Amino acid sequence: MTQDTPPDILSADQAFDAMGQRLAGLTASVDGFAARQQELHARDYSPELGRIHDRCDAIAKEIAAMKDRPALALSPQLIAGQIEAAGKSVRQDDHRAWDNAQQQLEAAARGITAVTASANSAQQQKYWLVVVAIVAAIPKAVGESQHSCPRLRGPARSYYSGLRLIL
């Protein structure tokens, strides 16, 4: 029988033979499938299962080791408390440094004020020395003496007399 021959042309004997062949092929396929399934069921998975078991043990050891690590023992509340304490400590250090800098600035300002006041005082003293020198030089420049100013009496006369003694 050929594959090209349509079934309506075949005789009954030929049709039964064709059907028998197809049934034999189907039976062989099912038997091959069953044998393959039996091979899979009969196979020893011990090496693969052993490797899986070893991996699971290694994972369990790592999990146990992580359990003892401090980072995993902290809760979010504990971490927040530690962050707050660290921030407070840093802020206190900053406040101390700021206060120290402010005190140093105030001390420098006081020093500058003292130097400025001293310079102002020295300048004022020089000014008054110049004024006294000018006032003392006026009578000499004019040529007046105690006797040439008969109008001066009392304290004024004593003032000019004292200036003459100084110069």
Characterization of the model:
With 167 residues, this protein is mostly helical. It has helices at 12-42, 46-67, 70-73, 76-142, 155-166. The longest helix is centred in the middle third of the chain and has 67 residues, at 76-142.
Which features would summarize this protein structure in a list?
167 residues; single chain; 5 helices; mainly alpha
Blueprint (SSEs and pairs):
Layout: H1 12-42, H2 46-67, H3 70-73, H4 76-142, H5 155-166
Spans of at least 5 consecutive residues with low confidence: none
Q: What's the total count of β strands?
A: 0
In DSSP terms (H or I, runs of 4 or more residues), the helix count works out at 5
- Name the overall outline: rod-shaped
Strand portion: under 5%
Radius of gyration, in angstroms, nearest whole number: 61 Å
Structural class: mainly alpha
How far apart are the first and last residues' alpha carbons, in Å?
162 Å
Q: Main sheet, how many strands, which sense, barrel?
A: none
Helical fraction equals over 70%
| Overall pLDDT confidence | 78
Q: List the secondary-structure elements in sequence, H or E.
A: HHHHH
Summarize this, please?
The model has no long low-confidence stretch (mean pLDDT 78). The protein is 81% helix and 0% strand. It has five helices and no strands.
